[in-house]
Amino acid sequence: MIEDLLLALAGAAVAAGVYTAAAARVVKQYERGVVFRLGRLLSDVRQPGFTLIVPVIDRLHKVNLQIVTMPVPAQEGITRDNVTVRVDAVVYFKVVDAQDALVRVEDYRFAVSQMAQTSLRSIIGKSELDDLLSNREKLNEGLELMLDSPAMGWGVSIDRVEIKDVSLPETMKRSMARQAEADRERRARVINADAELQASKKLAEAAHQMADAPSALQLRLLQTVMAVAAEKNSTLVLPIPVELLRFLERGGTAAPAPAAAQKPMTPQEPLPGLEPPPAPSPAYLRGAADAVEAIEDLAGAPVEPAPQEETT
């Protein structure tokens, strides 16, 4: 009698163990359990942890609530300005309602993928090439809105959508490169012209300043000579004003002319038909004297005045 009772208890324990093993389920922290009892959906969603179901009668489906990263295959389309491009993107989404994700759509991953491809083609046709290249934030927001509206009915929330790459034909790349080069060249020419304008204004101001003080021009000439001589060049070009040569010519001693040739002219008598030259100012004479001294220092010998040719 006792042996039969022990055997019955042992059999019950084994049956309970088998039942518990068949009914026990573990739901992870990032999952939710949806139970179907004889094909009908139970209202309560199993939370993370240990849970029990009725073997053979219940079916437990685990739904992952983590954010899913899904790449969208590259889609080829024609933009609004008639340019053929290939655009690929990536979609980040997650399940917010486990029951709707299982009941309302057959495969929510496949549905989101197809909707993303269709929306990407639609965005390509509505946008211009410049928007695809430089205004992607606005296009990403538009893609997110187009995907989020139907996905909410599936228990899926679109976290964000990003356009990864835009592939252009080689001919379009070359055309864009030429356009960028022409724009850079235009900007360089404008900058050079602006620099020339500013330099001309400064040179005009310097010319007016030197006109008030003629000695400043001589000092600038000496500075130029010093800058050229510092380079140790074998050839030195020294510009001499024509007025200085005329001044030296007038100040030189004239050779005596034959008595029978013509009547000698005094400095007070101008040539026939010509007006006498104006007398140089004292400031100009001082500048000329400084220039002559500088030339003598550079040449190492005094500058002789040029002889005046005889007039016949």
Describe the model.
The protein has helices spanning 2-23, 98-103, 108-126, 129-134, 136-151, 170-212, 214-229, 242-251, 282-299; strands at residues 24-27, 31-37, 40-41, 49-52, 58-64, 68-78, 84-95, 156-167. With 312 residues, the protein is an alpha+beta fold. The protein folds into four domains: 17-64, no CATH class; 68-168, Tetrahydropterin Synthase, Chain A (2-Layer Sandwich); 170-212; 214-253 and 280-312, no CATH class. The strands form three sheets. It has a three-stranded antiparallel sheet with strand order 3-2-5. Strands 6-7-8 form a three-stranded antiparallel sheet. The longest helix is centred in the middle third of the chain and has 43 residues, at 170-212. The model is unreliable at 253-268 and 306-312 (pLDDT under 50).
Protein topology:
Blueprint: H1 2-23, E1 24-27, E2 31-37, E3 40-41, E4 49-52, E5 58-64, E6 68-78, E7 84-95, H2 98-103, H3 108-126, H4 129-134, H5 136-151, E8 156-167, H6 170-212, H7 214-229, H8 242-251, H9 282-299
Antiparallel strand pairs: 1-4, 2-3, 2-5, 6-7, 7-8
Main traits of this protein?
312 residues; alpha+beta; Tetrahydropterin Synthase, Chain A; three-stranded antiparallel beta sheet; 50% helix; disordered C terminus
